Amino acid sequence: QDAPWQGQSDEGSDASLASGNCSSTVGARSPWRRFEGGASRGTCRYAVACPLSVPLEDMQPPFVVLDGLTSSSNVGQILRSAFHLGVTSVVASQSCWSCLNGRACRVSMGWMYQMQFHLADSLPATLKCLQSRGVHVYGADNYASAYVSARYGAKPVAPHMPAGGCEWALVVGSEAGILSQEVVAVCNDCVCVPQRQGESLNVAHVTAICLYELSKNSTRQAS
Fold it and tell me: Could you tell me if 52 and 117 are in contact, meaning their C-beta atoms sit under 8 angstroms apart?
């Protein structure tokens, strides 16, 4: 789209310029309109390989874990909130990894580049690995769904204990507000944001509130 090598040929452009006839470019959609001045033909386009999956053992808690999200905008909002609340370690399920794209980075205001990511081959197995390191895993429910509440007793989110500890991870589910049953079965606790009315909050809003509450007693500063 609008690449410099698309549109009229270089020969045609050179001929028009040599003859002083620029009428062919007036009012037309120039393929150069996204570039500026004489440097247009020297513009360099490049790709950034981000994110790269980091070994789980190289990452430090607290964690935010993305389970099945499908909206890059929501993912970007979550990353922006997480970074500002001191959470820079992110685990993503395979279905969510494709949402870590340019749009998510723009929505995160670029803070995504300051975070570490791990691609989980199996999210339940990855959560068990975190638990073996002493990490307490919380599952966030958007609106205390009947399945989570009835079987696992989702409770209002509260600061992580013991005070000052950062060994925790928050798992957030899809935009439908439901964590996968396999993931819920692994979580140490399921938490929710109490609501006075309405059905559910946006997953990014729930994540921001839960991260804020869980990190209230944290003393470790983000690197």
Answer: yes
